[in-house]
Write a structure and sequence with these properties.
This protein is mainly α. It is 74% helix and 3% strand. The protein contains 13 helices and 2 strands. The protein starts with a helix and ends with a helix.
């Protein structure tokens, strides 16, 4: 028994230390956890309840329970359907354009060229500009600068181009402005990934006669697959949630016709939910649409990460 005392005593010390560490862990976590529950979890649960009522956020008026009526109305609303379609289109095109431009910028600024640090800073600076300010800047460019350039260079296509007034082209104006803002941030992630690609592999492939595309497809792309997972997730989520640039640039307009009803060409889901809740003062409908927006974005984001991770393993 004497031989067993030291190990048991040591085990007791380890258990006491473990309990003490867990106590300190929860003490340090408690403020952030309390704030998260108070600001996120409780309002979310209340939001689910309010989406099942006719709540109008008017003091003294108790909301009545209406069940799934708000959700039925939402899915039959032409404006919601059109907003959903345009959001998916905007997200798909934004994810493609941002990642393409970011990867192109990353390749440019990781080459041995003069002033590459200057170019890195230049590409990144637009990300520091707030969405509202950026929207007003591009509104001025699209409305005044582009037609003036067309007049100066005698290019009728630019001279008569009213990008933000055209229901078909206005969405591409948003994509252009959003790509200009966000590509520099995504570029930094690609730079970190490209700098971690072993140069020995690229040099060996070059000695074997591989061209740039062969080296990119067989070596660089598999080595930066993890960066693609991160950048795809970030661009996907931010594209779906885009709000401030749209408010500053188009306010959801211009108007167009969809299924015989007047709708707004650039009113994406985030803007649509805001308008329903605050512009049309239908809080319950706005809350129901916000719940569906959250569930949809969660499912799409989780699926994207899952398939990207699976792709990493295959590569």
């Amino acid at each position: 028994m004497g031989d067993l005392v030291p190990p048991l005593f040591k085990k007791g010390l380890i258990m006491r230390q473990y309990k003490s560490d867990r106590l300190w862990f929860w003490l340090f976590l408690a403020p952030a956890l309390f704030a998260f529950i108070l600001v996120v979890i409780i309002p979310f649960i209340m939001g689910i309840y309010y989406s099942l009522t006719d709540w109008q956020a008017v003091a003294g008026i108790k909301p009545n329970f209406v069940g799934l009526e708000n959700y039925k109305t939402m899915f039959t609303d032409i404006a919601f359907q059109y907003s959903l379609i345009r959001t998916f289109l905007f997200t798909f095109l934004s994810v493609m354009s941002i990642n393409f431009m970011a990867l192109l910028f990353a390749f440019l600024v990781t080459r041995e060229v003069k002033g590459k640090n200057f170019f890195r800073a230049g590409f990144f600076i637009p990300n520091l500009i707030g969405g509202l300010v950026l929207g007003y800047i591009w509104q001025f460019i699209f409305k005044s600068v582009v037609p003036s350039i067309g007049t100066l260079l005698h290019i009728p296509a630019l001279e008569d181009l009213l990008l933000l007034a055209d229901p078909t082209l206005a969405l591409f104006g948003l994509i252009f402005a959003f790509t200009w803002q966000y590509a520099g941030y995504i570029m930094m992630i690609y730079i970190a990934a490209l700098l971690n690609v072993p140069q020995e592999l690229l040099e060996a492939a070059e000695i074997d006669g591989a061209n740039f595309w062969q080296k990119f497809r067989s070596i660089t792309l598999p080595m930066i697959a993890q960066a693609f997972t991160i950048t795809s997730f970030l661009t996907l989520v931010n594209s779906f949630k885009q709000f401030d640039i749209i408010i500053a640039l188009t306010k959801g307009g211009p108007s167009t016709i969809y299924n015989g009803e007047i709708v707004n060409a650039t009113e994406l889901l985030a803007v649509h939910i805001y308008n329903v809740a605050f512009k049309y003062n239908d809080m319950a409908q706005g809350q129901a649409r916000a719940i569906i927006f959250f569930l949809m974005l969660s499912v799409i984001s989780i699926a994207q990460v899952y398939f990207s991770k699976k792709r990493e393993v295959e590569m």
